[in-house]
Amino acid sequence: MDGRRTTATGRAPEPPRSPDQDECVPKPAPATPQPRTPRPRKPVAPAAQTVGKEDADAPAVQPTLTRSEALQILVDRANRGSKSALHCLRQLMNQCPEVWQEVGDLTRHAELAWTHLVGGDNKLVLEAVKRHVARMKGELAGPAPTPIERLLIEQVALSWLASRHAEIAAATPGTSSLGEAKVRLKRAESAQRRHLASLKTMTELRLYCTRQK
Length: 213
What we know:
This protein has helices at residues 19-24, 53-57, 67-79, 83-95, 97-103, 106-119, 123-141, 147-171, 178-212. It is mainly alpha-helical. The radius of gyration is 51 Å and the shape is extended.
């Protein structure tokens, strides 16, 4: 025996290692987890829009027309000579009498024409004149005017507008000649006589109605 102690396995024990020796032995570095590479996703195809037979045969949605727009379309077709459109237009006026009552009111058209001649493009003047005429007609009509009185009141309002327009034109001759100024003055005098005649007729009618009562 060489004097060294043996273990039970018959192998000599390894000499103890000093701390310095442990530090010198390189330790294996811990394994770092590798990032997982994401798998490319397959593009999802959009769902195919299936059009059924009923949808394909359905008519396209038409925009909703207002009453005035539909009436104008009907009038345009009738003006182009469509007999069916003219027939539909007559049926419409029979069912809606307010249409022909407003469109066929010639007194209203005449009042608007004179009002635009007086006010021009001034919206304030136009609206003010309309209100003035409406108030004047209401005051002359009273609570229960007869049909003849209503016609005479409308004539009074029209002749008043015509005389006022003629007076304004005569008062603002501008650079017109002397002859043109005389014509404007005569026109104003004629309009004034017409207005006074309509007032006289309405007054005589009311006096007659009063006497009959």
